[in-house]
Amino acid sequence: MFTGLIERLAHSASIEERGEARHFTIAVADADYLHDAQIGESIAVSGVCLTATGLTPTSFNVSAVEETLRRTSLGARKVGDAVNLERALPVGARMGGHIVQGHVDGVADIIATRDEGEGWWVTFQPPFGLMRYIVGKGSICLDGVSLTVANVAYNKFSVALIPHTREVTAAGSWQSGARVNVEVDIVAKYVERLTQWVDRGG
C-alpha cells in the first residue's frame, strides 16, 4: 500500500523492449533512498506498483508486462522522462495522503492548465467510465501523487497544485497534451460493488 506522498523524483535511465514487455532502469540521485531496499519489494513508479527485480545503490530495475502497458502510461515513457517514486508504506508509518494501491485504473489527458495566484490549476479528461468515482473535494491519485479534486464537470475534473508539489514531483512538467496515470479512490469502487450486490439481493 502507498499514500500518494512522493518520496523522490527520479528518471528513466534505460528502457529495453523484450517481447510484449518493457524493462526499465530507474535512476535515483539520492543514494540513501535505496539503502535498505530489497529485490522483490514493491515500488510505485509514477503511480504504478512494480516489483524491483534488480538493485544498485543509485538505481533499480522494474518490468511492465502487456496488461500494465495497456492500462498505464508506461508504454509511452521515454528514456530521460521524470518519474515519481514512493516505496511501500511500512507498518506504523503515518498515513499522510490517502489509500493508494498502485493499481492504475486508466490514463487521463491533460486538456488545460492555468495559473491562479500561487496555485496552478490542471484539468484532466479521464476515461469516461471513471468519472462516476470522482467527486469534488475527494481524493485522487495522478501519476502517484495524492491530490484533492477541486472541480468536477461531466467528463473532466480539475486539481489545484501548490508550488511545493510542482517542485518536488514530476507534476512540474505537466502540460496540455500530456497523459497521466489515474487511480480513483478504492473506497468508491468498493461501495459501488457492495451496492450492486445489495441491489441483486446478495
Indicate the mean pLDDT.
96
Helicity range of the residues? 10-25%
CATH class of the largest domain: Mainly Beta
Number of domains: 2
Low-pLDDT windows of residues: none
CATH architectural category of the largest domain: Beta Barrel
Distance between the termini: 29 Å
- The total of beta strands comes to 13
Report the principal-axis shape.
Answer: globular
Task: Tell me the number of helical segments per DSSP (H or I, 4 or more residues long).
Answer: 3
Radius of gyration: 17 Å
**Can you list the strand order of the major beta sheet?**
4-3-7-1-2-6-5
Largest sheet: 7 strands, antiparallel
Might you state the CATH topology name of the largest domain? Elongation Factor Tu (Ef-tu), domain 3
Task: List SSEs in N-to-C order.
Answer: EEEEEEHEEEEEEHEH
Provide the structure class: mainly beta
Question: What is the percentage of strand-forming residues?
Answer: 35-45%
